[in-house]
Amino acid sequence: MKFCVCREAVEQVRPNPEETSGSDGESEAGGDSLEAERARVNALRLQLARTSRATATLQRQLDDVPGRAELAQYQRRFLELYNQGSLHEGKFSGPEMSFSPKICSLESGFSV
After folding, report:
1. Helix (H, G, I), strand (E, B), or coil: what is residue 15?
2. 20-39 pLDDT, tens digit each
3. Do 94 and 88 form a contact (C-beta atoms < 8 A)?
4. 74 within 8 A of 66, measured Cβ to Cβ
């Protein structure tokens, strides 16, 4: 009995070849509506792409501005670097010290 009910349901869902074979005018109208839908979908895709591009641009602009925590971290780091620089009170410190004999010898005309 269940088999008969399933078969009837399948026959109801399955299209009849007599009903689906319409005239050429009907199929052309369906093709025109299909092309119109495709054009509409393409237009919506373009609009979505423009919106996504604008959103990405605004997101990048927001990410370029540092927040309070990031600014505080920059300030701490600059103070650390400044304090490190002020520890060396000599005339030459760091990389300048290694270049000073060469610079002096070039100015005086002697080679090291």
Report:
1. coil
2. 555 555 566 677 899 999 99
3. yes
4. yes
Strands (E), the chain: none
Cα–Cα distance for residue pair 98/59, rounded to 1 Å: 46
Give the number of other CB atoms < 10 A from CB of residue 92.
Answer: 13
Please state the φ and ψ torsions of residue 92, each to the nearest 5 degrees.
-115, 135
- pLDDT tens column, 25-82: 556 667 789 999 999 999 999 999 999 999 999 999 999 998 999 999 999 999 999 8
Both tokens assigned to 95:
């990389």
Model's pTM, two decimal places? 0.40
DSSP summary character for residue 92:
S
Look up residue 16 and give its DSSP letter. P
Q: Residue 11: which of 55, 3, 53 has the closest Cα?
A: 3
Give residue 49's pLDDT: 97
Residue-level length of the chain: 112
How far does the chain reach from its first CA to its final CA, in angstroms? Answer: 108
